[in-house]
Design goal:
The chain is mostly helical and about 70 residues long. The chain has a domain of about 45 residues. It contains 2 helices and no strands. Helix 1 runs antiparallel to helix 2. The radius of gyration is 19 Å and the shape is rod-shaped.
Length: about 70
C-alpha cells in the first residue's frame, strides 16, 4: 500500500463527487461512494488539524525565543 497523500486524496474525493453527480451510478453505488468520500474527508480533516497543531507549536516556540532574557 502506498503512502497516504493529501493532494491525491482530494483528487479522489473530487472524482467521487463527479461520479455521484453524473447520475449514472445506481443508488447503492451512490451510497458506497458517499461513504468512501466521508471517510477520506475525515482523513483530510485529521491531517489538516495535525498540521495546524504543529504550526501553532512552532509559532509559540518562535515567540518564546523572541522574549528577552533578564
Amino acid at each position: 500500500m502506498s503512502e497516504w497523500n493529501y493532494e491525491t486524496t482530494v483528487q479522489e474525493i473530487e472524482t467521487i463527487i463527479q461520479q455521484i453527480e453524473s447520475g449514472y451510478l445506481p443508488l447503492e453505488g451512490i451510497f458506497e461512494q458517499f461513504e468512501e468520500a466521508v471517510q477520506q474527508l475525515k482523513k483530510c480533516e485529521n491531517f489538516l488539524s495535525q498540521g495546524q497543531e504543529r504550526m501553532t507549536l512552532l509559532i509559540e516556540t518562535l515567540e518564546d525565543e523572541d522574549l528577552p532574557l533578564d
